Each structure stands twice: as structure tokens, then as C-alpha cells.
């Protein structure tokens, strides 16, 4: 990764961009509160509409980008953002794996549009909703739906020191054990995606006695076949198992492959 802060002593210029998304990842940054004010003292925020700063055409050292690419206009705009940014970070499940919008890739999106709009011919969308990496070079990814405030601040701090952020690869189950949260699959028979999901959420759902929804996408060495068979043993049919993988991160390759296997005739 290039060092965006090797810029002759000036404050690095940072932009936050939104594409097809719910704004949740931007809110994670706004929720930093006093830390965000401190951040503004060491970087120059030149574009962040959610915070009232608008200059989309600005040349920046770091672009934090939320959202998937779902329209022809967005496909063109993300290329312009890439051209004006020394580093580009995909922020959240939509930007890294298509997010919930990518569910339309699994269905007849044209039929949905025709059912909702009286003149669907005026609706211009791409054939699929896709992550940023399908369109431009991405230098780093932050997972989550939404990302956590800690993730974003840790990323900027690491880059401010001129180092690459430490990659995450641990599964959510390890965080449950560290937090003393009892396994909801073992104790309650709840289907839980924790064994194949990247850590980072603070075990929000298991701590509330609910199964993980895989907001942070697939972890490394995710044994989706074994987990799917566990779900079957809990009473889920193959279609229900497939839906567990084809949810928030349906376009993530590991989950997409698992979804195809469990929804088709191929033996997982």
C-alpha cells in the first residue's frame, strides 16, 4: 500500500463518498464524536456530505467509499473518485460485497421494477449490483453492515502513522469465547453464521441470544459445507440454508459459492 501521508508536511485530504447504501457506515464515522473532532485536527475533511461538507470533485489523499455500484451513473462516478484519490477504501458490506442490493442479482430485477413503477423504462440500473472492486482498484476493505466506529478510526490512525492497517481474519466464534458469550447453536439450537463470519461487530447478536447474520462477511478458511450440514441438522431445508449465505454479503465469493451449492443440486 502506498503511503498517502508522504505529502510534504501538509494535512492529508480525506473524502467520504456515498453510493447505493443506507448511510450506516457514514454514521459509524459520525458516531466517533470527540474522536471525529480530533481527527479533523490532523486531516482535512474536504468532502463528507453527511457532515455538511461538499466538494465531490476534490483531489484527495484518502477516499472512504460507502455503497455498491448499482447504476450506470455510479459506475462512471466511482471511476472519477478513483482518479482523484491516492488511496481508496471500500467501507462496509455494500462497498465490499454488494450488500443487500446484490440480492436483486439473484432474482428478476426487471420484473420487480415493472411491478413498482408505472413507467419502468425510466429506471436505469446496471444488470447487477456489485462491489467497488468490480469497477476500480480498491486499496483496502473495511467489512461490516455497518462498519464499526473503531474500524474506521483505527484505519485512519494506522495510515496517519504511515503503516498498513492490521488485517482481520479471525472468526466471530473466537470473540464470543473471549467475551464469555455462550454458543447460541449449542445452548439454544439457533442457526448462527459465527463459525464462518469475520469478527468485528462485538458479538451483538449472540450476546442477545440470537444467531449471527454474517454482517461482516466470510472469514478466512470458512467451512461453509460443515456449517450448512449443521443447519440441516437443526431443521433448515436446503433453500433456508442457502438464504443464510445469500443475505447481506451474497456477492462475497465464499458465500456466493455456498449459496449456489445449497440452492442447487450439487452436494455441498
Strand order of the largest sheet: 2-1-3-4-5
Number of domain units: 2
Proportion of residues in β-strands: 5-15%
How many angstroms separate the termini?
37 Å
Instruction: Provide a count of the helices.
Output: 12
CATH architectural arrangement of the largest domain: 3-Layer(aba) Sandwich
Number of strands: 5
Give the C-level CATH assignment of the largest domain: Alpha Beta
What is the averaged pLDDT score? 91
Poorly predicted regions: none
Shape: globular
Decide which structural class fits the backbone: alpha/beta
Write up what this structure looks like:
The chain is an alpha/beta fold and 268 residues long. It has two domains: 13-160, Rossmann fold (3-Layer(aba) Sandwich); 172-263, no CATH class. 37% of the residues lie in helices and 10% in strands. It contains twelve helices and five strands. It has a five-stranded parallel β-sheet with strand order 2-1-3-4-5, with helices on both faces. The protein is globular and about 60 Å long. The two termini are 37 Å apart.
Topology of this structure?
Elements: E1 13-18, H1 24-30, H2 34-42, E2 44-48, E3 60-66, H3 72-83, E4 85-91, H4 93-97, H5 109-116, E5 140-142, H6 149-160, H7 172-179, H8 184-188, H9 204-207, H10 224-233, H11 238-245, H12 253-263
Parallel strand pairs: 1-2, 1-3, 3-4, 4-5
Amino acid at each position: 500500500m502506498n503511503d498517502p501521508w508522504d505529502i510534504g508536511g501538509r494535512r492529508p485530504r480525506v473524502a467520504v463518498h456515498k453510493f447505493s447504501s443506507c448511510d450506516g457506515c457514514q454514521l459509524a464515522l459520525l458516531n466517533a464524536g470527540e474522536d471525529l473532532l480530533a481527527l479533523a485536527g490532523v486531516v482535512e475533511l474536504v468532502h463528507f456530505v453527511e457532515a455538511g461538507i461538499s466538494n465531490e470533485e476534490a483531489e484527495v489523499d484518502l477516499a472512504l467509499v460507502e455503497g455498491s455500484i448499482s447504476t450506470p451513473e455510479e459506475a462512471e462516478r466511482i471511476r472519477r473518485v478513483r482518479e482523484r484519490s491516492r488511496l481508496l477504501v471500500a467501507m462496509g458490506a455494500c462497498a465490499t460485497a454488494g450488500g443487500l442490493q446484490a440480492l436483486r442479482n439473484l432474482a428478476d430485477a426487471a420484473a420487480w421494477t415493472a411491478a413498482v413503477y408505472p413507467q419502468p423504462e425510466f429506471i436505469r440500473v446496471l444488470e447487477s449490483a456489485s462491489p467497488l472492486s468490480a469497477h476500480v482498484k480498491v486499496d483496502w476493505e473495511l467489512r461490516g453492515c455497518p462498519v464499526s466506529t473503531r474500524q474506521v478510526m483505527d484505519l485512519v490512525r494506522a495510515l496517519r502513522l504511515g503503516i498498513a492497517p492490521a488485517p482481520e481474519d479471525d472468526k466471530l466464534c473466537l470473540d464470543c469465547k473471549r467475551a464469555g458469550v455462550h454458543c447460541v447453536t449449542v445452548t439454544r439450537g439457533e442457526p448462527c453464521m459465527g463459525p464462518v463470519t469475520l469478527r468485528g461487530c462485538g458479538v451483538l447478536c449472540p450476546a442477545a441470544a440470537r444467531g449471527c447474520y454474517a454482517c461482516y462477511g466470510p472469514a478466512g478458511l470458512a467451512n461453509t459445507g460443515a456449517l450448512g450440514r449443521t443447519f440441516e441438522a437443526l431443521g433448515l431445508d436446503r433453500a433456508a440454508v442457502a438464504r443464510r449465505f445469500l443475505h447481506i454479503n451474497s456477492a462475497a465469493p465464499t458465500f456466493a459459492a455456498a449459496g449456489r451449492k445449497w440452492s442447487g443440486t450439487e452436494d455441498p
